[in-house]
Specification:
- By secondary structure, the chain is mainly alpha-helical.
- The chain has helices at about 1-30, 35-40, 45-65, 70-95, 100-135.
- It starts with a helix and ends with a helix.
């Protein structure tokens, strides 16, 4: 049982840290705090806004995860879907000649994969807990 709690807290800490970094960086770019916007080159505002939204969904999912709510994994899947939607819009933005940074595509793909992996981890943890209580 203690191993399960450790596993749960490690997942929560990783998601919280990742979300807070995204919130800091995204808000810094949008509101031009600390001169970070100048270092970002051709950032795409709707991608930054989507990343900020997803970061808050991560925090909501962590809350649900720590309180053993089944919807936590669904929140993470929703975040992944939102990121896929942003990647699709970015693709259209690129092909219509809009300015962008190449790393934006790679970062979005990484975030989609990251979100799907953690959605799976949240789901597996919930399934393990349900299986243990049914015995």
């Amino acid at each position: 049982m203690k191993n399960n709690k450790t596993y749960k807290y490690i997942i929560a800490i990783i998601l919280i840290a990742f979300a807070l970094v995204i919130i800091f960086m995204g808000s810094s770019v949008l509101f031009d705090w600390f001169g970070i916007r100048a270092n970002q080159g051709n950032y795409v505002p709707f991608v930054v806004k989507t990343n900020l939204t997803v970061a808050f969904i991560y925090l909501l999912a962590v809350y649900g995860f720590l309180h053993s709510k089944k919807w936590a994994s669904w929140a993470m899947l929703s975040a992944a879907l939102l990121l896929v939607y942003a990647l699709t819009l970015l693709y259209l933005h690129i092909h219509s000649g809009g300015p962008y940074e190449t790393r934006t595509v790679a970062v979005l793909i990484f975030r989609i994969l990251f979100t799907l992996v953690f959605a799976g981890l949240l789901s597996i943890n919930f399934d393990k807990k349900r299986t243990n209580t049914e015995r």
